[in-house]
Fold this protein.
Amino acid sequence: MQKEKILVIGASGQIGVELTMALRKIYGNANVVASDLREQNPLLEGTGPYVSLDVMNKEMLHVQVIRQNITQVYLLAAILSATGEKNPGLAWNLNMQGLLNVLDIAREEKMHKVYWPSSIAVFGPTSPRQNCPQQTIIEPITVYGISKYAGEFWCNYFFQRFGVDVRSIRYPGLISYKSAPGGGTTDYAVEIFHDAMSDKSYECFLSEDTYLPMMYMPDAIRATIELMEAPADRIKVRTSYNVSGMSFSPKEIAAEIQKSIPDFKMSYKPDYRQHIADSWPQSIDDSVARSDWGWKEEFSLAAMSKDMLDNLRQQK
Ligand code: NAD
Ligand code: SER
């Protein structure tokens, strides 16, 4: 059997750094090529191959795939919800064309697998707010959500029509201590830990009772790898899977942090991101991912908060 050689596109981002390191543990450092528009990432430096690459440049991407004998791509390059609303045209171009470039090359080069993440941002104000199911009314209001929903159907199309084994998860907001988030509506749930450690205070851009689905990064990385390693006949959904970790409001995460930093103070100044957050479900039903490929989260709000604070203290 041909050895797997993996290209991670967008490897310097919030997910990319940790996913690249996790894939390197499984497949060997030399078999996981990290790539990004950014020249290098200090957290990845010295851990394996890194190339500077623009996913929009299809020719150069194709050259890299052939030159490096790539058999799997993890495509993480995207513009997220909040940044996307500032430049909708740019977000649409990158989020759509980047995906189409990868899917086309995957088909042509008969790649073994492709991973591309979608988001809870596909859901909109007409979707159920609680335990939002896998299949439901989906009418996103952000350019990011529109691009993710369209992307899900491109993935399904390339699987049905050309047999490209592309797999996807609708991530909730992701919380991590290694890499900073890149312009999403859920970024407050990472910033709050850093500000709690440095200033013992945080001004939140969402209101105190804004519940959103969230997940700790170790769970997200494990979900991604479990999905990608599942036998193909277990993958029944070829658009994108709902997965759930936890659900909380700014007030609840502040209270959790106060258990460890009692004089931590939270204030609220909602901005344009409130409108985006209000359009998303508060919690997600992921029963289909659970029954198809055995997904189960490990981290609760309390366990995640403790681990975040322990690790940030160690980093100081
Ligand atoms: P990020 O913004 O942290 O990282 C994206 C990376 O892509 C950056 O390092 C950036 O330099 C790179 N990039 C941008 N344009 C590029 C281009 N033209 N060519 C190559 N690289 C380019 O994003 P992330 O949070 O790591 O998200 C990764 C994926 O997961 C995205 O598709 C995102 O929509 C999805 N997702 C993330 C979250 C989350 O909470 N982080 C939630 C749901 C879905
Ligand atoms: N965390 C992401 C965002 O807020 C969800 O896709 O954009």
The chain has eleven helices and 14 strands. The chain has a mean pLDDT of 97.
